[in-house]
Design brief:
The protein contains four helices and nine strands, in the order αββαββαββαβββ. Strands 2, 3, 4, 5 and 6 form a five-stranded antiparallel beta sheet that branches. Strand 8 and strand 9 form a beta hairpin.
Length: 247
């Protein structure tokens, strides 16, 4: 009887030892995998975020010249005839410069009566009762032709025609419409530039650049080359890219 009880106790002790061993091995294995996962996670966290720049200088491909003329008088009929005459002279000038009818657009005409002003003040004492203004717009893709016309427009003064622009500093408005054709090339250039910056950083930190972790495409901007050269544009884009690093 005692021998049987002794054998049962030994068996339980042996079974407990096996369970303890299994638990210990499991803890060690779990610790290894957890540690390895943490290590790999930390390695994945090693990254560098850089910005890649791409710039391109382009010529404007559309020019708009908004012109206005203003004359004064006391007789509406005479004022109307003078305004029509000046508009005709302006149109003939541009046709002579090589522009087509489609490139020329006559705008609205406004007449202000100083006597009709509710709060006239000094307006009622003006020498001329009526002030008339008329708009005329030239829109073309032929930039050199329009620039030549701008220079030659001084001959209108000899005919008693004074033209003005909304922006006296830059009378012609230039724009560029070919952005979509440039986008693929410039995005590729910006990405390449970002990679070069990341690799320079990696060399300085004894690391190696691997794959892209995240990327953000910046907005394209189109600006004048400088204040005095609005017919030449600078197209610019900045991409933000994060690269993963490894030893």
């Amino acid at each position: 009887m005692l021998n049987t009880i002794y054998k049962k106790i030994k068996k339980m002790e042996k079974s407990g030892w096996i369970q303890t061993t299994v638990i210990a091995i499991s803890i060690v294995a779990a610790g290894y995998f957890i540690g390895n996962t943490y290590k790999n996670g930390k390695a994945f966290e090693r990254s560098v975020q850089v910005k890649g720049l791409a710039e391109k200088q382009v010529n404007a491909d559309l020019a708009v010249w908004p012109i206005s003329i203003t004359i004064a008088g006391n007789d509406l009929n005479i004022l109307k005839n003078n305004l029509e005459k000046q508009n005709k002279e302006i149109k003939n000038f541009f046709l002579k410069e090589g522009f087509t009818e489609k490139e020329l657009n006559s705008g609205t005409t406004n007449i202000n009566d100083s006597k009709a002003a509710l709060y006239g003040g000094n307006e009622q004492n003006r020498e001329f009762r009526y002030i008339a203004s008329s708009d005329f717009t030239v829109r073309t893709a032929d930039i050199p032709k329009l620039q030549k016309a701008l220079t030659n427009s001084l001959e209108l003064i000899s005919k008693g025609i004074l033209i003005s622009s909304k922006n006296t500093w830059q009378p012609i408005q230039y724009s560029f419409s070919g952005l979509n054709k440039l986008k693929p090339e410039m995005i590729e250039e910006a990405t390449k530039n970002a990679r070069e910056v990341a690799e320079k950083f990696a060399r300085d930190s004894n690391s190696k650049v691997t794959k892209i972790k995240s990327a953000q495409q910046g907005l394209f901007s189109i600006n004048d080359l400088d204040q005095n050269t609005s017919d030449i544009k600078i197209v610019r884009v900045v991409s933000t890219i994060e690269y993963q690093l490894e030893d």
